[in-house]
Write a structure and sequence with these properties.
The chain is α+β, with helices and mostly antiparallel strands. The chain contains three helices and five strands. It has one domain. 29% of the residues lie in helices and 19% in strands. Strand 2 and strand 3 form a beta hairpin. Helix 1 packs across helix 2 and helix 1 packs across helix 3.
C-alpha cells in the first residue's frame, strides 16, 4: 500500500456509532456514502476504507488510523460482499471498478462525526 492507494482503518465502534446500529447491512449503507470500497474484518472489529495514497494528516482520531507505505491489509475476493462466515473479511462496500477509491472528504466527515458521537457518549 501507499503507492497507488492507501487505507484508513476504522474501529467497528466508530462505524456503529455513525450508523446508530451494529447491523452489518446498516453499517454498509452508511459506508456507501464514502463513495468507494470498504472492507470489513469482523474478526478484529475493523473496517478499511481504500483511499488515495496521500496521507490525510498526522492524527485522524483514536478510532481511525491512516495506513500507507509499509502497511498491508488482507483483501477479500471479488464477489465476497456479504458476511458468510463469522470471522471472514468481506467487502462491506464492493469496489465498482479498478482504481475506485473512497472520497477523502467523506472519510474525514465520517471520522469527525463518529468521534463526536463517541465523545458525547463518554461525556454523558
Amino acid at each position: 500500500m501507499g503507492r497507488r492507494f492507501s487505507a484508513v482503518r476504522f474501529t467497528a465502534e466508530l462505524v456503529h456509532a455513525v450508523a446508530a446500529s451494529a447491523d452489518p447491512r446498516t453499517a454498509s449503507e452508511v459506508l456507501a456514502a464514502l463513495d468507494g470500497p470498504v472492507i470489513h474484518d469482523p474478526r478484529n472489529g475493523r473496517f478499511y476504507a481504500l483511499v488515495p495514497a496521500s496521507p490525510p494528516g498526522p492524527t485522524l482520531s483514536p478510532h481511525a488510523t491512516y495506513l500507507g507505505l509499509g502497511h498491508y491489509i488482507g483483501v477479500p475476493r471479488v464477489g465476497d460482499d456479504e458476511q458468510t462466515e463469522v470471522w471472514c473479511s468481506y467487502w462491506a462496500v464492493p469496489m465498482r471498478t479498478p482504481g475506485d477509491l473512497c472520497s477523502p472528504t467523506s472519510v474525514t466527515g465520517l471520522i469527525t462525526g463518529g468521534t463526536a458521537i463517541l465523545n458525547g457518549r463518554i461525556e454523558s
